[in-house]
Amino acid sequence: YGSDIIPFSKVDEEQMKYKTDGKCFAVLGFCRSSLVQTYRYMGNQVLKVFAAKDDEAAAVALSALINALNELDMVAIVRYVYDRRSQPQVGAAFPLIKNEYECLAYVQLPYMEDLRHYIFSSLKNNKKYTPTEEQLSAIDSLVDSMSLVCEDDTEGTIVDIFKPNKFLNPLFQRLYQCLQHKAFHPDAPLPPIEKHLLDMLKAPQEVMEKCQVSLQKVKALFPLKDGGKIKEQKTAQFI
């Protein structure tokens, strides 16, 4: 705690864990979808919830709930527990209706302790850090030049250059690449990361070409300066 080392055994850790009764996906209530802001989404995945296979009654009931939520522009607030060893989560279940299927899309939401509210003083109160009109214009130009959507001149439609839903998880793809390599070459070192995986982590080439002029202007208007060496501090984790 701070600079003090507090002994904490595995037994203490197990005793403090919240004990659940097992798997759970229970509706706690409903609210307007507008009350669940995007910036409150947590976790690293979205779960799609379907009715049990070959259970027609469950499918009809779930379909009625999904369509009702969609018509009323509401979401379900649910309690989710993966298994008895997992900590309970609170999340929102959104109605998702496609031509091929319909389901609930679950997204984890924060508890009160997960929220951090930071208040920063306005830049307008400090003339030293107030950007000039030229600097603001340069940033506006950079943002516009790096837009991931553009208009197709031939058809007059909006084209999405970067489509996240079409990209595979590069972490998983790298893992699969290494597993396959080790299966066929157990004694060989791991191969380098494939080029298409590295390309997924970069901005599209056409965007990078468009933004070069704006980027150079931003670099000129916002020069970086060496702040000097910061005095090293010893924290509790190094004691």
Uncertain segments are none
Largest sheet: 5 strands, antiparallel
Evaluate the radius of gyration.
25 Å
User: How many separate domains?
Assistant: 2
Number of helices: 7
Q: How many angstroms does the end-to-end distance come to? A: 12 Å
CATH topology-level fold name of the largest domain: Ku70, Chain: A, Domain 2
The CATH architecture of the largest domain comes to: Beta Barrel
The percent of residues in helical segments reads 25-40%
Q: Could you spell the SSE succession in H and E letters?
A: HEEHEEEHEEHHHH
CATH uppermost class of the largest domain: Mainly Beta
Structural class by sheet pairing and helices: alpha+beta
Textual characterization of the structure:
The protein is of the alpha+beta class. It has two domains: 20-114, Ku70, Chain: A, Domain 2; 133-221, Ku70, Chain: A, domain 4, CATH 1.10.1600.10. It has helices at 10-16, 56-72, 133-145, 170-184, 195-200, 205-210, 212-221, and strands at 24-32, 42-49, 74-81, 89-97, 102-109, 149-152, 157-160. The strands form two sheets. A five-stranded antiparallel β-sheet has the order 1-3-4-5-2. It has a two-stranded antiparallel sheet with strand order 6-7. Strand 4 and strand 5 (102-109) form a beta hairpin. It starts with 9 loop residues before the first helix and ends in an 18-residue tail after the last helix.
